[in-house]
Design goal:
This protein has about 750 residues and is mainly β. It contains 11 helices and 38 strands. The two termini are about 55 Å apart.
Length: about 750
């Protein structure tokens, strides 16, 4: 396995728009003098390291890595002992400058800029020392990136430059976290070998970082960063981060991206490697697992899977530990403002490589690619199954009559088992029965491949909509079932526990334009954010009648979500007539969409749905719903889990924080969350449309460009589909008898 390190190289102007401004000057200095400031993300050298060579070039970060949405600027006296003024502003394209007032006759000043860390404004910062002691903490292992990265930079300005009103003062800012791009490939030396990927996890993730960098010249020593400062492990996230990999073909490679705070654990002397392998640096990397165990807090990626060799005669459960660092063998430092580009290629299951742990498999085994518990919505999660013998295998739900919500199949796509219905494959033949969800499936030969566990939504009984009964964070409330894999040859079994959280009920008022409560509706809310930092999408979506009408629809997120889905994939009355309007991903002529011409004409809805980008809010929401009628895709009416509208989302904040309530929880509940309510239309890639969002930490409503990466929480109305008792047969989508139809404007399906 080879690993490459690349340092982040960017030089991008960060744009400011005057959506909000706050200035804090001492009252005696009300007559200040203004200065012009431009923020720019610091450019760094790219270092690409291989065992046999090294080269130097430059690379530009992603736009999101360099995005500044908010800045706080502190002005201190020249020695940093006293705060003279502070200023904060929301930033947005296309403005480039921040203008700040400073008190007069204070001499030289020292500026510190803090980007994308709004909560710092409410803290007592009176000197540079206060900033240097400030810790940035996260509550989730992937919290180092929340649509943007926290950055810090400083600039000293002399009196002469302060007097030059035309001078533009540039503050170069550094990201306090690092980005890691991980690629995994399988290129065996023996072409008959096979490798089946189970999961990819990251261990030893720092949960805090100093806002101001603590410079260290000696990479061989452990750093003085926040993770290692205490030396007691308290600076690390307690568990692991399960990575969601992209791609299906290991020969071509699968990939994942994550961000983490700096973790400088030190560097081993080359002497250790020369004693064993002389100057053969290609062999030095095989020792990194052994050496890494002497650095117990070093960050590493662990790849788990099943390796089949000797033409199928030997099967081993394997894990590969890949330590992050500047090189392949001796460095165990993760440095802020860096980009680690790691490619791991599995060629053999070789015990000489100390990063590899292998165990011979003789019985049945399941390796899940998910963490318990699953959330309340519908789920389809992958598992790697293995049996040794060729006499056959079976996978089944234990006590299926007691667990109708739990099913299995060989397909990630849920296909309900409907009496009398036949599913046909793309080749025109009847589909393998194991591709249809059921409580049991079986096959011939040995099993060495993936299967999927499907769970229906978990909507608990709560007839009075009593929010105090919500207990989704209590393990006692989770429902539990078991999936069993049996090897028919030796009758060995593996029993996998599957847990699922209940949804949380929220009683939401519906208000008129005067803010008066007209009625109450009941909703259910999920807990977990399976994906984060999503875009709203529809960047160049024009101001057509549907979108214009949605701007004023701030209480009906279900209608908004269904309309957005329909606008993406709607079928024209004559699908073969390319002169008529259709969804933006059909590729037909459409006067409203710039994106339409990017795709070949298609009349297949499944193809069109797959064209929706994976980081698009609507694509994410579709995965929480279920194809109930088995027609191969999510129908308009089958969308019951949806993105709340602006005022619905704001009411979720109230449900979490109002006195007497506060029994609703979900991950990252202090972050910014998209609503399904659009704002201004967009016409070009440079000037995309806007959409409303809510800062869930404060309840504040605002709007931003639709390419901004915020989180998405999904809701479900009480009384919509809950599933029949057998949980595998078709049903309808309804609302309860108490639902206020006057508040619902659902666009008819076309």
């Amino acid at each position: 396995m080879m690993r490459y390190l690349t340092s982040l190289a960017v030089c991008l102007l960060l744009f400011a728009a005057c959506t909000r401004e706050w200035e804090d000057l001492p009252s005696s200095d009300a007559q200040g003098e203004g200065i012009r400031i431009v923020l720019s993300a610091e450019s760094m050298e790219l270092v690409e390291t291989r065992a046999e060579d090294a080269s130097y070039t430059e690379e530009t970060s992603t736009e999101a890595d360099s995005r500044v949405e908010h800045v706080i600027i502190y002005a201190f006296n020249s020695d940093g002992t006293s705060l003279l003024a502070r200023y904060q502003q929301d930033l947005e394209y296309p403005d480039k400058e921040v203008r700040m007032m400073l008190p007069v006759n204070k001499g030289s000043v020292l500026l510190h800029a803090v980007c994308n860390y709004e909560k710092l404004w409410d803290e007592n910062i009176g000197s540079v020392q206060d900033l240097e002691n400030k810790l940035v903490s996260i509550t989730q292992p992937d919290g180092a990136f929340n649509g943007s990265m926290v950055m810090h930079g400083t600039l000293g300005i002399g009196q002469a430059d302060l007097s030059d009103k035309a001078k533009v003062n540039v503050i170069w800012v550094k990201r306090i976290a690092a980005r890691v791009d991980f690629a995994l490939k399988f290129d065996p030396e023996d072409p008959t070998d096979k490798f089946y990927l189970g999961n990819v996890k990251v261990y030893n993730i720092p949960n805090r970082a100093y806002l101001v960098e603590r410079v260290q010249d000696d990479p061989a020593a452990a750093g003085t960063d926040a993770a290692t400062a205490a030396g007691d492990g308290n600076g690390f996230w307690g568990g692991s981060l399960l990575l969601q990999t992209e791609g299906e073909d290991l020969a071509a490679g699968v990939s994942a991206r994550f961000y983490l705070f700096e973790n400088r654990q030190g560097r081993e002397s080359d002497k250790v490697y020369r004693l064993k392998f002389a100057d053969n640096e290609n062999m030095w990397q095989t020792m990194k697992g052994e050496v890494g165990r002497t650095y117990p807090q070093a960050t590493y990626i662990q790849v788990s899977g099943t390796y089949v060799s000797d033409e199928g005669r030997t099967t081993q459960s394997v894990t590969y530990d890949i330590y992050l660092g500047e090189n392949n063998y001796s460095d165990f430092n993760v440095v802020r403002n860096s980009h680690y580009n790691i490619t791991a290629t599995i060629k053999t299951c070789n015990k000489l490589d100390t990063r590899v742990s292998a165990t011979i498999l003789n019985g049945a085994q399941i390796t899940p690619a998910f963490n318990n518990p699953l959330d309340a919505h519908c789920n389809a999660v992958r598992c790697l199954g293995y049996t040794r013998n060729t006499a056959g295998w079976e996978v089944y739900v234990e006590n299926p009559d007691e667990h109708p919500w739990l099913e299995v199949s060989l397909s990630s796509q849920y296909r309900p088992r409907i009496a009398g219905k036949t599913y046909m494959g793309t080749d025109g033949n009847e589909l393998d029965p194991n591709m249809i969800a059921s409580s049991r499936m079986e096959g011939q030969g040995a099993m060495a491949g993936y299967f999927y566990i499907h769970t229906d939504e978990y909507i608990p009984e709560n007839l009075t909509a009593d929010e105090s009964l919500n207990n989704t964070t209590d393990p006692a409330s989770w429902r539990t079932g078991y999936v069993v894999l049996r090897d028919k040859g030796n009758n060995s079994t593996y029993r996998l526990e599957v847990k699922q959280r209940p949804a949380q009920v929220v009683r939401m008022p519906v208000k008129n334009l005067l803010g008066q409560v007209t009625s109450y509706n009941e909703y259910f809310v999920e807990y977990e954010l399976e994906e984060k930092n999503l875009t709203w999408g529809f960047l160049m979506y024009g101001a057509n009648p549907v979108m214009t009408g949605m701007i004023n629809d701030r209480w009906d997120g279900l209608s908004n979500t269904r309309k957005l889905y329909q606008e993406a994939v709607k079928i024209p009355q004559d699908p073969d007539d390319d002169s008529t309007d259709s969804g933006i991903y059909w590729g037909a002529y459409n006067g409203y969409y710039t994106v339409a011409d990017q795709y070949p004409r298609s009349t297949d809805l499944e193809t069109v749905v797959n064209r929706i980008p994976d980081d698009h809010m609507i694509k994410y929401v579709l995965g929480k719903n279920r194809d109930r009628n088995g027609n191969g895709y999510i129908d308009y009416e089958e969308i019951v889990w949806y993105v709340p509208a602006l005022d619905e989302l704001a009411e979720l904040y109230s449900a979490m924080h109002d006195a007497g309530r506060g029994n609703v929880f979900f991950q990252n509940s202090e972050d910014k969350f998209h609503s399904s309510t659009p704002y201004l239309a967009g016409y070009t890639a440079e000037v995309p449309g806007r959409a409303f969002y809510v800062k869930m930490g404060s309840g504040e409503k605002s709007f931003a460009m639709r390419d901004r990466q915020y989180n998405v929480i999904c809701c479900r109305r009480k009384g919509a589909w809950t599933g029949n008792e057998d949980a595998g047969y078709e049903g309808g989508v309804t609302v309860d008898d108490e639902w206020n139809e006057d508040d619902v404007d659902v666009m008819p399906k076309q």
